[in-house]
Specification:
Length: 132
């Protein structure tokens, strides 16, 4: 798993401000090869959750967008409200942290490929907790 923190706050001696710059990122196949060791290629990741911050440096609100393990549908978690959301609206100036999982590749070295659970959820057919 790789967590990418997007710098959203600029602090100076005089003031701080919220940065709302849109950082465009692919949800599938985020290529991190340029930032990996030379002998580890390719290095694609899939985004499965996004933490968002709306507001200012002095007040704001956090929400989360998460991709369901089985249905692959994206949901927005906003306090006690949960709703489906289009994947087209996930890239925004509010994105604060990206939660990703490395995609398996043909060149994956089994000694360095860690099996990290993508998500712990309940299987609707068996009602048991499962991980991927």
């Amino acid at each position: 798993m790789l967590v990418i923190h997007l710098k959203r706050f600029s602090l100076t001696e005089e003031f701080s401000e919220k940065l709302n710059t849109i950082v465009d990122f692919p949800l599938i196949g985020l290529d991190m090869s340029l930032y990996a060791a030379k002998d580890i290629v390719p290095c694609p990741y899939n985004v499965y959750a996004i933490s968002n911050h709306s507001g200012t440096t002095y007040s704001g609100h956090y929400t989360a967008h998460c991709r369901h393990l089985y249905t692959k549908i994206w949901h927005e978690y906003n306090d006690s409200l949960i709703s489906s959301i289009s994947s087209n609206s996930l890239v925004s100036g509010d994105a604060y942290a990206l939660f990703t999982k490395k995609r398996p590749t043909q060149n994956t070295n089994s000694t360095t490929d860690f099996k990290t659970p993508l998500l712990v959820t309940t299987d609707p057919n068996t009602n048991k907790m499962v991980t991927q």
